[in-house]
Amino acid sequence: MSKLVFAINVSLDGCADHTVAIADDELHDFYARWMEAIGAVLFGRITYQLLESYWPQAPEDPHSTPSEVAFAGAINAVPKVVFSKTLREVSWNNTRLVNGDMVKEVARLKQEGGKAMSVGGISLIRTLLNLGMIDEYWLLIHPLIWGQGRRLFEGVTERHAARLADSMIFRSGVVVLHYIPVREKDRKKGIE
Questions:
Q1: 30-64 burial by CB neighbour count: b if 16+ within 10 A, else e?
Q2: 3-class SS at 128?
Q3: pTM, rounded to two decimals
Q4: How far apart are CA 65 and CA 179, in angstroms?
Q5: What residues contact residue 95 under an 8 Å CB cut-off, 6+ apart?
């Protein structure tokens, strides 16, 4: 069974808008390694369209840093699955569109096994988190108070416990927190 892993940039005040990130080489290097380690990335329409509008062309941009080019190569190569009820086609290479039942498709993909899959996008994470389908969280906390934008876990309907598995700090002050969910069966055993 494949793990479903969620990684996202978030501000100190919980905003998960793409503009809150300190998009330096260290961050791009982290996400390039991330994309190379996973078997697929799952997107909602909004996140897909945001990334698809820039990253396929980034390697040809003369202003791209080597780290940005490496990330572009990794995200362009990884298989991508887009869940949308409104999109009719996708053009980014290695991308498959799913207009049907997201939960059934994610469950099917997890059952296939293989490398972990990454979830990108706030709407997807809310649904999958509420259903207990996320196996790991990687929160990249940026030392910024944004004050506006979409809140990361807004709309989550239940308590979800997790234990800290690892952490690291980037030179920019970004703190990376790696959490593993504590399932109900583990809570009953006293693991929390």
A1: bbbebbeebbbbbbbbbbbeebbeebeebeeeeeb
A2: helix
A3: 0.90
A4: 30
A5: 48, 52, 79, 80, 81, 82
In 3D space, the residue among 2, 21, 75, 11 whose CA is nearest the CA of residue 43 turns out to be 75
How many domains, the chain? 1
For residue 83, the cross-strand partners are 44, 98
Residue 7 carries which side chain, given as an amino acid letter? A
| Residue ranges making up the domain that contains 166 | 4-188
Q: Specify the CATH number for the domain of residue 30.
A: 3.40.430.10
The per-residue pLDDT for range 3-62, each reduced to its tens digit, is 999 999 999 999 987 777 889 999 999 999 999 999 999 999 999 999 999 999 999 999
